[in-house]
Amino acid sequence: MIRDIWEFPGRTIGRQVVVYSTTDSTNNRAAEHHGQPGLAFLADTQTAGRGQHGRKWTARPGASVLLSVLLAPPAFISRPAILTAWAAVSVCETLKRFSTLSPQIKWPNDVLVGEHKLAGILIEQKKPGEMVAGIGLNVRQTRDDFLLDELPLATSLFGIGVDRTTEEVAQSLLAILDEEYNRLIKSDFFSLESRWKKYMGLLNGKIEVECADAKHVGQLIELSFSELRIHTIGQHDLVITPESVLHLKEVVK
């Protein structure tokens, strides 16, 4: 059920935001609006929210920013790696507006504070030339909420000392998503890519990467939207694209 509509004339992302009291999935609502890129969809609660690999995303009503944006990106930014980075960096920048804590991006689509997951991102292609960016950002949950949902490694803004309403956080996130997207469509990759690398915190560290053909372990010596370059012991440098990575984790010494 729609409970509100926000209007932000002049924006590329979120010029209109449809707010539901409840829906099955904001990604589903976005996908229904073919040909209307930039529309955004929020929900107080979802009955069939999902994350990466079809994992269920649960939250009590009003506790999380549950946001999806319909995109028709130019071909040069339509890769999932770039759009995931755009969403993840935007979440990190939103957190920095409210807190001095340092967020981290966990490859490829989670935002952490310390060891605890604050947000998750799901990029889906629904129709040729159109993609949906879904973001779930925990805002008001308590420790007991996460324990009840059997999510001991999750956290929320409230859990790290940020006492803000879900609406405040959603509006800040939407403004930053718009700002970052406008930079991207003007071919300003450097700013986003440099912050993505910083928030990832993996460069020059030892990683284990799993691709379709094999697992590889080595030092990550280059990270960009185009490639990962990994120096493996006794072998030539391995060069792979971000999209070819199935799993990636830091190898703790």
Short note summarizing the structure:
The protein is of the alpha+beta class and 253 residues long. The chain has five helices and 13 strands.
Number of domains: 2
The residue-averaged pLDDT reads 93
Element string (H = helix, E = strand): EEHEEHEEEEHHHEEEEE
CATH architecture call of the largest domain: 2-Layer Sandwich
Radius of gyration: 18 Å
Name of the CATH homologous superfamily of the largest domain: Bira Bifunctional Protein, Domain 2
Low-confidence stretches: none
Identify the CATH class of the largest domain.
Alpha Beta
Distance between the termini: 51 Å
Share of helix, binned:
10-25%
Secondary structural class: alpha+beta
Beta-strand percentage? 25-35%
The backbone outline, from C-alpha atoms, is globular
Describe this structure in words.
The chain is an alpha+beta fold. It has 2 domains: 2-199, Bira Bifunctional Protein, Domain 2 (BirA Bifunctional Protein, domain 2), CATH 3.30.930.10; 202-250, SH3 type barrels, CATH 2.30.30.600. It is 25% helix and 33% strand. The chain is built from 5 helices and 13 strands. The chain has helices at residues 26-31, 80-98, 143-148, 166-185, 189-200, and strands at residues 2-7, 16-23, 40-46, 64-71, 103-106, 110-113, 116-127, 130-138, 206-210, 215-223, 228-231, 238-240, 247-250. Strands 1-2-3-4-8-7-6-5 form an 8-stranded mixed β-sheet. Strands 12-11-10-9-13 form a 5-stranded antiparallel β-sheet, with no helix packed on it. Strand 7 (116-127) and strand 8 (130-138) form a beta hairpin. The protein is globular and about 60 Å long.
